[in-house]
Amino acid sequence: MITQWRAGLCVDRGTTVGPYEEYAPGGKGVVTWGCTEWADQYCWLLDAERPGHCPVLARSHDPGPWYRYDDMSASEFLHRVLADADFQPFGIARYELGVTFVPGSHGDGAEAL
Q1: Is residue 107 domain-resident?
Q2: Is residue 17 in a domain?
Q3: In the list 57, 77, 95, 105, which could disulfide-bond 43, CB 3.0-4.6 Å?
Q4: What is the model's pTM?
Q5: Which domain of life is it from (predicted)?
Protein backbone atom coordinates (compact mmCIF):
# COMPACT_ATOMS: atom_id res chain seq x y z
CA MET A 1 0.00 0.00 0.00
CA ILE A 2 2.78 2.46 0.86
CA THR A 3 4.38 1.76 -2.52
CA GLN A 4 1.16 2.69 -4.31
CA TRP A 5 0.84 5.85 -2.18
CA ARG A 6 4.42 6.90 -2.97
CA ALA A 7 3.91 6.19 -6.68
CA GLY A 8 0.80 8.35 -6.59
CA LEU A 9 2.79 11.16 -5.00
CA CYS A 10 5.27 11.13 -7.87
CA VAL A 11 2.51 11.37 -10.46
CA ASP A 12 0.26 13.85 -8.65
CA ARG A 13 2.87 16.18 -7.21
CA GLY A 14 1.68 19.75 -7.35
CA THR A 15 -2.00 18.84 -7.51
CA THR A 16 -4.19 21.14 -5.46
CA VAL A 17 -6.99 20.13 -3.13
CA GLY A 18 -8.93 23.33 -2.67
CA PRO A 19 -6.55 25.87 -1.16
CA TYR A 20 -4.13 23.08 -0.18
CA GLU A 21 -1.47 21.18 -2.11
CA GLU A 22 -1.27 17.38 -2.10
CA TYR A 23 1.41 16.21 0.31
CA ALA A 24 4.86 15.39 -1.04
CA PRO A 25 7.61 13.97 1.21
CA GLY A 26 9.50 16.73 2.97
CA GLY A 27 6.80 19.30 2.31
CA LYS A 28 3.40 20.41 3.49
CA GLY A 29 0.07 19.26 2.14
CA VAL A 30 -3.03 17.10 2.26
CA VAL A 31 -3.29 13.31 2.51
CA THR A 32 -6.82 11.99 2.00
CA TRP A 33 -7.60 9.10 4.33
CA GLY A 34 -11.33 8.70 3.95
CA CYS A 35 -14.49 9.57 2.08
CA THR A 36 -18.17 8.76 2.36
CA GLU A 37 -20.78 7.47 -0.02
CA TRP A 38 -22.07 11.07 -0.05
CA ALA A 39 -18.64 12.26 -1.30
CA ASP A 40 -17.55 13.91 1.96
CA GLN A 41 -13.75 13.98 2.08
CA TYR A 42 -11.55 13.46 5.18
CA CYS A 43 -7.84 14.35 5.17
CA TRP A 44 -4.82 15.11 7.29
CA LEU A 45 -2.86 18.31 6.77
CA LEU A 46 0.78 17.24 7.10
CA ASP A 47 3.85 19.41 7.52
CA ALA A 48 7.29 17.77 7.47
CA GLU A 49 8.58 20.54 9.76
CA ARG A 50 5.94 19.65 12.40
CA PRO A 51 5.94 15.84 12.65
CA GLY A 52 3.22 14.52 14.91
CA HIS A 53 0.91 17.48 14.27
CA CYS A 54 -1.77 16.25 11.87
CA PRO A 55 -4.91 18.40 11.87
CA VAL A 56 -7.99 16.76 10.37
CA LEU A 57 -9.45 18.53 7.35
CA ALA A 58 -12.93 17.70 6.13
CA ARG A 59 -15.34 19.01 3.56
CA SER A 60 -18.82 17.96 2.67
CA HIS A 61 -20.01 16.84 -0.73
CA ASP A 62 -21.19 20.29 -1.75
CA PRO A 63 -18.51 22.71 -2.91
CA GLY A 64 -18.39 24.25 0.54
CA PRO A 65 -15.49 25.24 2.76
CA TRP A 66 -12.91 23.02 4.37
CA TYR A 67 -13.34 22.45 8.11
CA ARG A 68 -10.11 22.22 10.07
CA TYR A 69 -9.91 20.36 13.39
CA ASP A 70 -6.54 21.18 14.98
CA ASP A 71 -7.16 19.57 18.37
CA MET A 72 -9.03 16.44 17.28
CA SER A 73 -7.52 13.08 16.36
CA ALA A 74 -8.85 11.11 13.39
CA SER A 75 -10.37 8.55 15.79
CA GLU A 76 -12.21 11.26 17.75
CA PHE A 77 -13.37 12.82 14.48
CA LEU A 78 -14.79 9.48 13.29
CA HIS A 79 -16.42 8.85 16.67
CA ARG A 80 -18.17 12.21 16.44
CA VAL A 81 -19.22 11.57 12.83
CA LEU A 82 -20.81 8.27 13.87
CA ALA A 83 -22.14 9.03 17.35
CA ASP A 84 -22.70 12.79 17.78
CA ALA A 85 -25.96 13.95 16.20
CA ASP A 86 -24.92 17.58 16.72
CA PHE A 87 -21.58 17.25 14.89
CA GLN A 88 -22.44 19.35 11.85
CA PRO A 89 -22.14 19.10 8.94
CA PHE A 90 -20.58 15.62 9.14
CA GLY A 91 -22.48 13.77 11.88
CA ILE A 92 -24.69 10.95 10.67
CA ALA A 93 -26.16 9.94 14.06
CA ARG A 94 -29.04 12.37 13.47
CA TYR A 95 -30.30 10.09 10.70
CA GLU A 96 -30.84 7.16 13.11
CA LEU A 97 -29.56 4.64 10.57
CA GLY A 98 -29.24 1.85 13.12
CA VAL A 99 -26.41 -0.61 13.33
CA THR A 100 -25.08 -1.63 9.94
CA PHE A 101 -21.71 -3.11 10.88
CA VAL A 102 -21.40 -6.88 10.63
CA PRO A 103 -18.09 -8.38 11.78
CA GLY A 104 -16.26 -10.67 9.39
CA SER A 105 -16.07 -14.41 9.84
CA HIS A 106 -13.40 -15.99 12.01
CA GLY A 107 -12.29 -18.61 9.49
CA ASP A 108 -8.80 -20.06 9.09
CA GLY A 109 -8.41 -20.82 12.80
CA ALA A 110 -8.68 -17.17 13.91
CA GLU A 111 -10.21 -16.50 17.30
CA ALA A 112 -12.59 -13.68 18.16
CA LEU A 113 -11.07 -11.08 20.46
Answers
A1: no
A2: yes
A3: 57
A4: 0.69
A5: Bacteria
